């Protein structure tokens, strides 16, 4: 197996919720297809009459509730996830229209009806597959197949073999190898991450810190927007936002020991509710779980007064955990259930708290391990296919478990820990393989089944 070769900024992506694999991935796929269309020569463009997009797997099963149609339209209309208006999906949903897809000096008609919910079962190698087809009068002129593989990551058919990345100064496949690199070279974890990131992206250290601070700003903006927005979330569930009410209670809380719980709940719900509204969030590692890392960032920054540099280094520690989960298991609910989304986010947040507070590597690893261990087996069962029930409250629970993971990890000498992070990631992968498809983002089992008619 090759070493981890992911950039921090591929794991933490800015874009519209409510599901990175259903919105950010498809939007990036559509933008990539648009770039292909722009490369067509004039005679091919003149022949083109229409575009059709087929969604497969859980994109087909829950794409309606997850905003996949609007994400695909936004990408084909020239929007990128990072720079699109925060409410772009909402605009497209609430003002359905006949759009015009620019094709050189021509335009093709484009509407939601051109996005087709195809089969749940399919022969493609990844669960969430999109096929883009450009038709002329005589048949297909151009066809592309993309896989949305979780966390906004995207692959194109045949791309796996072609993806060649620069050699990293400190390669590792798992936590054990990462630990060996740290001890052999006398490095702290954030230094190893910075050196690898520099080699991978060519960015300078200052540029990396600037981008990390931008991520922190975007996370805090999502929390701030959510704390200030009340009302009902979009979709048929009629779910009331809760973050502003909890935040209000925080101002007048009597019992001091409730404060941290109320704060984490309010902050996690705020960002998760913004995600459910389809607004801009940061995947951490996914959109569905995008309330957990921002909740601890907001707590550490606003309640505990930690500085920007400590938080950036905490984000790098969180990214290490996300990388390892993605590399050795999965961070996609469609592959391993919610343990890969909320469970991994909780582990990342636990690592962030530990590292940002100045703890060394072993405590950071143990905190992440503890948080993930107690999410093993968590299924993905979004009611009606909407990233609302149980997803939003699950973010609040994940944030609490993250902080608790940190507290437990500091209770005994780090070397007394019996389970290491590699083992729990292996367990997550094995458990995910055993989960029936109805528990993997198809909205066909668990709460989605029991509350299906609400
Ligand atoms: S249940 Fe978990 S994995 Fe599934 S959509 Fe909700 S947050 Fe994502």
Automatic annotation (TrEMBL):
<dbReference type="InterPro" id="IPR005130">
    <property type="entry name" value="Ser_deHydtase-like_asu"/>
</dbReference>
<dbReference type="Pfam" id="PF03313">
    <property type="entry name" value="SDH_alpha"/>
</dbReference>
<keyword id="KW-0312">Gluconeogenesis</keyword>
<keyword id="KW-0411">Iron-sulfur</keyword>
<keyword id="KW-0004">4Fe-4S</keyword>
<dbReference type="InterPro" id="IPR051318">
    <property type="entry name" value="Fe-S_L-Ser"/>
</dbReference>
<dbReference type="GO" id="GO:0051539">
    <property type="term" value="F:4 iron, 4 sulfur cluster binding"/>
</dbReference>
<dbReference type="GO" id="GO:0003941">
    <property type="term" value="F:L-serine ammonia-lyase activity"/>
</dbReference>
<dbReference type="GO" id="GO:0006094">
    <property type="term" value="P:gluconeogenesis"/>
</dbReference>
<keyword id="KW-0456">Lyase</keyword>
<dbReference type="InterPro" id="IPR004644">
    <property type="entry name" value="Fe-S_L-Ser_mono"/>
</dbReference>
<dbReference type="InterPro" id="IPR005131">
    <property type="entry name" value="Ser_deHydtase_bsu"/>
</dbReference>
<dbReference type="InterPro" id="IPR029009">
    <property type="entry name" value="ASB_dom_sf"/>
</dbReference>
<dbReference type="Pfam" id="PF03315">
    <property type="entry name" value="SDH_beta"/>
</dbReference>
<protein>
    <recommendedName>
        <fullName>L-serine dehydratase</fullName>
        <ecNumber>4.3.1.17</ecNumber>
    </recommendedName>
</protein>
<comment type="similarity">
    <text>Belongs to the iron-sulfur dependent L-serine dehydratase family.</text>
</comment>
<keyword id="KW-0479">Metal-binding</keyword>
<feature type="domain" description="Serine dehydratase-like alpha subunit">
    <location>
        <begin position="185"/>
        <end position="448"/>
    </location>
</feature>
<keyword id="KW-0408">Iron</keyword>
<dbReference type="GO" id="GO:0046872">
    <property type="term" value="F:metal ion binding"/>
</dbReference>
<comment type="pathway">
    <text>Carbohydrate biosynthesis; gluconeogenesis.</text>
</comment>
<feature type="domain" description="Serine dehydratase beta chain">
    <location>
        <begin position="7"/>
        <end position="158"/>
    </location>
</feature>
């Amino acid at each position: 197996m090759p070493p981890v070769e992911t950039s921090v900024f591929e794991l933490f992506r800015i874009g519209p919720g409510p599901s990175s694999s259903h919105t950010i991935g498809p939007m990036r796929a559509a933008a990539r297809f648009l770039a292909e269309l722009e490369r067509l020569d004039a005679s091919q463009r003149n022949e083109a009459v229409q575009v059709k997009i087929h969604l497969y797997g859980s994109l087909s099963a829950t794409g309606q509730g997850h905003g996949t149609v609007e994400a695909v339209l936004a990408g084909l209309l020239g929007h990128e996830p990072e720079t699109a208006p925060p409410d772009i999906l909402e605009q497209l949903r609430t003002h359905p229209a006949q759009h015009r897809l620019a094709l050189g000096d021509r335009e093709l008609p484009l509407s939601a009806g051109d996005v087709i919910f195809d089969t749940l079962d399919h022969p493609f190698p990844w669960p969430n597959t999109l096929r883009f087809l450009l038709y002329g009068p005589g048949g297909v002129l151009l066809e592309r197949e993309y896989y949305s593989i979780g966390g906004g990551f995207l692959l194109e058919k045949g791309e796996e073999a072609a993806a060649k990345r620069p050699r990293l100064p400190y390669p590792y496949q798992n936590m054990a190898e990462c630990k060996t690199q740290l001890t052999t070279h006398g490095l702290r974890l954030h230094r190893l991450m910075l050196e690898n990131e520099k080699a991978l992206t060519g960015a300078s250290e200052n540029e990396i810190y600037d981008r990390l601070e931008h991520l922190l700003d975007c996370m805090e903006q999502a929390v701030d927007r959510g704390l200030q927005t009340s009302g009902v979330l979009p979709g048929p569930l009629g779910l009331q936002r809760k973050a502003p009410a909890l935040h209000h209670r925080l101002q007048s809380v009597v019992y001091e020991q409730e404060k941290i719980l109320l704060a984490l709940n309010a902050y996690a719900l705020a960002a998760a509710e913004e995600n459910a509204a389809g607004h801009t969030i940061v995947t951490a590692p996914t959109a569905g779980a995008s309330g957990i890392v921002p909740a601890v960032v907001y707590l550490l920054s606003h309640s505990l007064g930690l500085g920007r540099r400590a938080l950036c280094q905490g984000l790098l520690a969180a990214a290490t955990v996300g990388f390892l989960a993605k590399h050795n298991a999965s961070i996609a609910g469609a592959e391993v259930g919610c343990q890969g989304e909320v469970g991994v986010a909780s582990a990342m947040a636990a690592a962030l708290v530990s590292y940002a507070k100045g703890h060394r590597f072993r405590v950071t690893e143990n905190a992440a391990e503890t948080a993930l261990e107690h999410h093993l087996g968590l299924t993905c069962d979004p009611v009606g296919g909407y990233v609302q029930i149980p997803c939003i409250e699950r973010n609040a629970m994940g944030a609490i478990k993250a902080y608790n993971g940190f507290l437990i990890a500091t209770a005994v000498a780090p070397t007394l820990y019996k389970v290491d992070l590699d083992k729990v990631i292996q367990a997550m992968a094995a458990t995910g393989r055993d989960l029936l498809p109805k528990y993997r983002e198809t909205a066909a089992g668990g709460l989605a089944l029991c509350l299906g008619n609400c």
